[in-house]
Amino acid sequence: MRRMTVELEAQPPSGFAQRMGVRRASSGSNYRSTYLVLGIGVCSYSLLQSLTVPTLPRIQQELGTDQSTAAWVLTAFLLSASVATPIGGRLGDSRGKRRILVLALVALSVGSVVASVATSIEVMIAARVIQGLGGAALPLAFGIIRDELPASRVPGAIAATSSLLAVGFGIGIVVAGPIVDTLGYHWLFLLPALVSAGGALAAMLVVPESPAVSAAAVSLLPAFLLAGWLVALLLAVSKAPQWGWTSTAVVALMGAAGLLLVLWLWAELRAAVPLIDVRLMASRGVWTANLVALLVGVNMYGSFGFLPQFNQTPTENGYGFGATVAEAGHMMLPAAIGTFVCGLVAARLATRIGLRPVIVLGCLLASSGMWMSAFLHDVKWELYVAGGLTGLGTGLTFACLANAVVASVPAGQTGAATGMNANIRIIGGAVGAALMTTFVTADRGPSGFPVEHGYTLGFAFLAAAGLVAGLAGLLIPGRARDAVMLGASREENP
User: Fold this and answer.
1) Local structure of residue 208 (DSSP, 8 states)
2) Are 433 and 301 in contact (CB under 8 A)?
3) How far, in Å, CA of 70 to CA of 63, rounded?
4) Whose CA is closest to 100, among 231, 191, 8, 195?
């Protein structure tokens, strides 16, 4: 099989520090401005990921389509982001992080504008594919933080940025109802379009270009194979609840995903400059962080997608609160607040007790929140408490996972490695949402709403995923390794 490559020109490194792969730090005011712009970019992407979750029935009605077709408004974004996240991170490492970040934010803005004026479901789905390209913003943000911020600020900035992803997801669910009720569903996309366009302009003016980039070729064959197995896998798990887990189509897609995964690994091992260094991914600090990310992704995204539906279920079904879209969103606030607060304090806590204990604690908190949602959901305050526990755990875990990955790879692999970690989180979310759909829709009552037992089983499954994530967290390198992770940013020559 012939390896296809494309030569990407890059700015040559200059100076002793760049030749040796040593990081630089911008001045105080500059790095703060840089971080602010990165936060805007990450929040824009995260908001677009979640704004449609509670308002999908409204979009379905406005565009005159059926439920299964409307679900592609979410699926298309997820599939596109899953491909763009690791590829965009690698292109940023080789071509220049600011350049690719600006392109990612422009894609977010353009896709949002197209979605806001869409008059058919086909155009809406195409717009969501364009928006998903903005998934590259997260690994690029991690790489720029590592390049530009003082070493002492890197762990805290990465932790806070990681938490913004979950916070933006939670806030999107909270504000979606009021936006639709007061302005119409078109503004679900127009507001993020304005924010991401402003972020792209600010990135061009404020964010410095990467201090060192590689002129080496980036292999295209691994990129195509990566896209192939991710699309096949996520398409299978997203459609399995509708088609059936043992249906011919789902089995065929799973088989194709497995075959393409093997071919991708083969191509990466043969590539002169791999898209993702799979040997590096096999290091203990990386694969353990990726395993935890997968399981916590199952826990977090599965709950965010179905808790609003649970809360909106009319009380005459024996459960639920008959909440409006806006009220259901407000009930998600404790989760969003807990995630953000823990993202701010996670790095400091890890310096005291170590990364591994903080990650395990976070997983157990997230699991306990889901157990409470499964078995204690008769009054609203119980779900407020459960959401807060889940948010606290998610914030601690994601913040520290990003630091574990960044400190375990050379500077030239930061974007690709963190992109893959974020991508595995997305895959976990897709699997969690698909399995939750299977549990919840397995049995319906006379009113057509799912029976309570389906939600109980689903939330219990998510809790179990969080518990297994905590066990997996015990495999992450211990305190000796933490001292390296949380000290001055360790740099290695690729």
Assistant:
1) P
2) yes
3) 9
4) 8
Tell me the pLDDT tens digit for each residue of 371-428: 999 999 888 999 999 988 998 898 888 878 877 887 777 766 666 677 778 778 877 8
Residue at token pair 């980036």: 218
Strand locations in 95-234 (E): 218-219
State the Cα–Cα distance between residues 345 and 156, nearest whole angstrom.
Answer: 8
Tokens of 108: 């977010």
φ/ψ of residue 23, rounded to 5: -75, 160
| Per-residue DSSP letter, 478 | -
3-state DSSP call for residue 5? strand
For 402, the 3-state DSSP assignment is: helix
- Please state the domain extents for the chain: 28-208+275-486, 219-268
Beta strands in 311-411 (DSSP E): none
CATH level 3 topology of 28-208+275-486: Growth Hormone; Chain: A; (1.20.1250)
Instruction: Write out the E strands in 249-344.
Output: none
Highest mean predicted confidence (pLDDT) among 19-28, 238-247, 263-272: 263-272
Residue with tokens 């969690």: 432
pTM passes above 0.85:
no
Q: Give the separation between CA 474 and CA 366, rounded to whole angstroms.
A: 16
Identity of the residue numbered 103: L
Residue 485 burial by Cβ neighbours in a 10 Å radius (0-12, 13-18, 19+) = buried
Residue 467 contacts residue 343 (beta carbons within 8 Å): no
Task: Give DSSP secondary structure letters for 100-131.
Answer: HHHHHHHHHHHHHHHHHT--SHHHHHHHHHHH
